[in-house]
Automatic annotation (TrEMBL):
Subcellular location: Endoplasmic reticulum membrane
Top-level lineage group: Eukaryota
Protein purpose: Involved in cellular auxin homeostasis by regulating auxin metabolism. Regulates intracellular auxin accumulation at the endoplasmic reticulum and thus auxin availability for nuclear auxin signaling.
Main location: endoplasmic reticulum
Organism placement in taxonomy: Eukaryota, Viridiplantae, Streptophyta, Embryophyta, Tracheophyta
Protein name (Swiss-Prot/TrEMBL): Uncharacterized protein
Sequence intervals crossing the membrane: 12-32, 44-62, 74-95, 107-128, 148-169, 254-278, 290-315, 327-348, 398-419
Membrane topology per record: Multi-pass membrane protein
Any single Gene Ontology cellular-component annotation: endoplasmic reticulum membrane
Keyword Transmembrane helix applies: yes
Record-level GO BP terms: auxin-activated signaling pathway; endoplasmic reticulum to cytosol auxin transport
Length: 421
């Protein structure tokens, strides 16, 4: 395939996403009578989450994934974990270099580490198979395997997002709210010279400034020292209790994610795909329960357009003003869409050279594209949940997804050329 043909094959799925997302964005404005209002988006998102997506996942897995395919995909959970780990490290480095406001720190780390493992891959990767002359073989086989890879990616991404990313944003939001409460309490007070205390939320050394500003005269006598020691003991107990509570909450969120409809559909899809007699019940022209598979396919077909419309509608919130600096946005875009995919490419190529991956180039393409995806939309949900950085999160999402239109096309074109040679 020539460069122009590769560019066309890579850009068509992205253009489709852009067109449908633009329609979703327009439907969320007054020009379309606010059809995709906030309340309607929540309801539609529930339908997609509980009905459309599980149907799509189960039907694709049961039809195309065998026991041998499951064994060959063992590297994908490792790969998804590496995207979160490496992205989290890069995000932490950005935080140390940029020194942003405390409520933006968690968003930076989350945006760099948590890619969109579900919505976009399940739209873009199968669509690659629809283009003529693609390097991944026959259309039907390619499309079926692409749906399986994207569905498995979505299930794995959900687990990591609702554990690693959830705890990252929660920890940063708690620190910000604690510091904000300190500022509210401290602001009306004056020191002995009558000077008003300065705000605590704008500098690098916020916490150390608060400690240095506290009066120390009350700890000079022995009675006060006993009080301090008792407070430290109580604080240590609270810290231990807090650690236990956080651990329990992480496990609870993991169990909840494992019991979510997409995850359950993934499990049963694997089961029906691996066990021959179960597979023969619903797959095939002569299958006695083939109507179940047909119904699930019909329901699953509604997942992709609804997901893409919701994506565009949710991004409209990013037009609100916020305090996110341009340098922060540029740093996140470069890290998430260019640096991380480059690292991922080296990891996948090294794994392939060591014989850890199947020969299937579509599988390797899917692994690298996991590193190139823009931030997960669930980050916005978590920001709303913790009520910290909502507007900032919307702005980050808007600009990263806008840049992703170019980055995904570029990476997809390069990978199609790489795996077609």
């Amino acid at each position: 395939m020539g460069f122009l043909e590769l560019l066309e094959a890579a850009s068509m799925p992205v253009i489709q996403v852009l067109l449908i997302s633009a329609l979703g964005a327009l439907m969320a404005t007054q020009y379309f009578n606010n059809i995709l209002s906030s309340d309607f988006r929540k309801s539609l998102n529930k339908v997609v989450f509980f009905i459309f997506t599980p149907s799509l996942v189960f039907s694709s897995f049961a039809k195309s994934v065998s026991l041998q395919d499951m064994i060959s995909m063992w590297f994908m959970p490792v790969n998804v974990g590496l995207t979160f780990l490496i992205g989290g490290i890069l995000g932490w480095i950005l935080v140390k270099l940029l020194k942003p406001n405390l409520k933006v720190e968690g968003l930076i780390i989350a945006a760099c580490s948590s890619g969109n493992m579900g919505n976009l891959p399940i739209v873009i990767i199968p669509a690659i198979c629809n283009e003529k002359g693609g390097p991944f073989g026959a259309h039907d086989v390619c499309h079926s395997h692409a749906l399986s890879y994207a569905s498995f990616s979505m299930a794995l991404g959900g687990i990591f997002i609702w554990t690693f990313t959830y705890q990252t944003l929660k920890s940063c939001s708690m620190r910000f709210k604690a510091l904000e409460a300190t500022q509210i309490i401290k602001a009306p007070n004056k020191d002995l010279e009558g000077n008003v205390d300065t705000p605590l939320l704008t500098g690098k050394d916020n916490e150390s400034t608060a400690i240095e500003a506290a009066p120390l005269s009350y700890i000079q006598d022995s009675e006060s020292q006993n009080i301090v020691q008792q407070d430290q003991f109580v604080g240590l107990k609270k810290e231990n209790h807090s650690f236990l509570a956080r651990t329990i909450e992480v496990l609870r969120n993991l169990v909840v994610e494992l019991l979510s409809p997409p995850a359950i559909a993934t499990f049963f899809g694997f089961l029906f795909g691996a066990v021959a007699w179960l597979r023969n019940l619903i797959i095939g022209v002569n299958a006695p329960l083939s109507v179940i598979q047909s119904t699930l396919v019909l329901l699953g077909n509604g997942a992709i357009p609804c997901i893409t419309l919701l994506l565009g509608a949710n991004l409209t919130q990013g037009f609100k003003s916020s305090s996110v600096k341009p340098l922060t946005l540029i740093s996140i875009i470069v890290t998430r869409l260019f640096v991380l995919p480059l690292i991922g490419l080296f990891i996948v190529k090294a794994a392939a050279d060591f014989g850890l991956l199947p020969v299937d180039p579509l599988f390797q393409y899917s692994l690298v594209m996991q590193y190139a995806m823009p931030p997960a939309m669930n980050i916005s949900t978590m920001a709303q949940l913790f009520d910290v950085g909502n507007e900032e999160c919307s702005v980050i999402m808007l600009w990263t997804y806008g840049a992703a239109a170019i980055a995904l096309t570029a990476w997809s074109t390069f990978l199609l050329w790489l795996f077609s040679n």
